[in-house]
Design goal:
Layout lengths: L9 H13 L5 H6 L1 H24 L16 E4 L2 E5 L12 H14 L7 H5 L2 H14 L3 E5 L2 H12 L5 E5 L4 H10 L2 E5 L4 H11 L6 E6 L11 H10 L3 E5 L14 H4 L8 E5 L9 E5 L1 H10 L1 H5 L5 H16 L2 H19 L12 E6 L1 H15 L1 E2 L2 E2 L9 E5 L7 H17 L5
Parallel strand pairs: 2-11, 4-5, 4-6, 6-7, 7-8
Antiparallel strand pairs: 1-2, 3-9, 8-9, 10-13, 12-13
The chain binds pyridoxal-5'-phosphate (PLP).
Length: 436
């Protein structure tokens, strides 16, 4: 009689037993010690994941993950086909820019591929320091610290700025990395309504005194909607209520401000915002993130922030690539202009066809659908019939009932590429009854 765990279906256990018996080296001892026992235990412990996947599928929230076999660009290779890429954050086309690639290759030839250690032990190279100086200069800030990603930059910075004696006022639609960073800080958190300065002020009035220090934290550009936070009003409230102001400029870098210097430059607030954080993974085309602010605060980040102290440094290739990307932007804003003109064309054509493109003020172009299932259907149809790669965005990335396809135009697209995308949306949207 074959022993089986009571939760393991008999058929699975018998199949497994049969295959073990086919194995000529099968023995009872081996069976007892075999991975079969582990298999039985494992089946039980993680079976809940299968159920969760099933319910994601039932709710239309299971996202297919496509595997790309080419560089990021206006078109990408997925399996054996080529698709028009409308969902990458490669705003300026820098992810495959020849000069930026060359800078990365040269740095790898000089420094190799890995930093080898955390920065405080043996991982800081001269390129990291040069990049920090370059970022600070580009952002008109006193200093900057480079991290391995934008998510990590938020996780690094917020717990240095505030702790359980302090209070945080956090925008309702802040990015997940800010939400996690605030949790990690143990500071008391109050969430203010999206873009609502009256609500922020009400929260400050009621709760500012509960913390020794206070921090107002917001995305600069909201990644799923493309609207821009009212940073000037936030800084005024920060000054009035003695609260530090922190802005996440992940989607403003290379997009807003003079030569893409970002949101703080866009609003001319460089002496009034305490921390400007950003990522190198979007418009700058590569990988990594940073925090910028006063020299003493940056010094403290290097002493206290955990991703600096406990995670190996950004590699040389990415560091050099980002430096090159900033140099290109400083000297030439034609990619920036191309990005904005493609974005205007995309929004106008979609609106002319009857799509709701939300309230974006930046190139981010959400095509608002609402229903999760319909959004997945549209994305599938665009992919299969029209060879358009445009991923669905559903809960929990956006609130339930606000599912959408977020289109990301790029400087690398030609105007014809934009027309191909909008025409495909028109046909697919009609056939699914999304537009008339
Ligand atoms: C607003 C915002 N902050 C932070 C991040 C994280 O940046 P990274 O991809 O470099 O980790 C993102 C990326 O999705 C973002 O949109």
């Amino acid at each position: 009689m074959l022993w089986r765990h009571p939760d393991l279906p008999m058929e699975n256990a018998e199949d497994r037993m049969f295959s073990l018996k086919q194995d000529s080296s099968f023995s009872c001892d081996r069976f007892i010690n075999s991975d079969f026992i582990q298999y039985v235990i494992h089946m039980k412990r993680t079976d809940w994941a299968k159920d969760e996947i099933e319910s994601l599928k039932q709710e239309g929230r299971y996202i297919p993950i496509r595997t790309i076999g080419s560089p990021q660009g206006p078109y990408v290779r997925i399996e054996s086909d080529t698709y028009l890429n409308m969902c990458s954050n490669n705003y300026l086309g820098f992810a495959n820019h020849p000069d930026i690639r060359r800078a990365a290759i040269e740095a790898i030839e000089k420094y190799g591929v890995g930093a080898g250690a955390v920065r405080s032990i043996a991982g800081t190279i001269d390129l990291h320091r040069q990049l920090e100086e370059k970022v600070a200069e580009f952002k008109h800030m006193e200093g900057a610290v480079v991290y391995q990603g934008g998510l990590l930059a938020n996780i690094a910075a917020v717990p240095v700025l505030v702790n359980k004696q302090d209070v945080v006022f956090s925008e309702e639609l802040n990015h997940a990395s800010i939400i996690d960073a605030v949790r990690l800080s143990s500071a008391r958190k109050y969430v203010y309504k999206h873009m609502d300065m009256d609500d922020l002020e009400r929260n400050l009035k009621e709760h500012r005194r509960e913390g020794k220090k206070a921090l107002i934290i917001s995305d600069g550009v909201f990644s799923m909607d493309g609207d821009i936070t009212p940073l000037k009003e936030i800084t005024e409230l920060g000054e009035r209520y003695d609260a530090m102001v922190y802005v996440d400029d992940a989607h403003g870098e290379g997009v807003l401000g003079d030569h893409g210097r970002g949101i703080v430059d866009h609003f001319h607030l460089s002496d009034r915002v305490d921390v400007e954080m950003g990522t190198f993974s979007k418009a700058l085309g590569s990988m990594g993130g940073f925090v910028s602010g006063s020299s003493s605060l940056m010094d403290l980040m290097k002493q206290r922030s955990r991703p600096f102290l406990f995670s190996s440094a950004l590699n040389a290739g990415d560091t050099a690539a980002v430096m090159k990307a900033i140099s290109i932007l400083e000297h030439d804003d034609t990619p920036l202009k191309r990005l904005w003109s493609n974005a205007e064309k995309l929004k106008k054509e979609l609106a002319d066809f009857g799509f709701d493109t939300g309230k974006s003020k930046t190139p981010i172009t959400p095509v608002m659908i609402g229903s999760e299932k319909k959004t997945l259907e549209l994305s599938q149809l665009l992919y299969k019939e029209y060879k358009i790669f445009a991923s669905p965005i559903v809960y929990p990335t956006v609130p339930r009932g606000t599912a959408r396809i977020r289109l990301m135009p790029s400087a690398a697209h030609s105007p014809d590429d934009i027309s191909i995308a909008t025409e495909a949306f028109r046909k697919a949207g009609r056939s699914l009854g999304i537009i008339s």
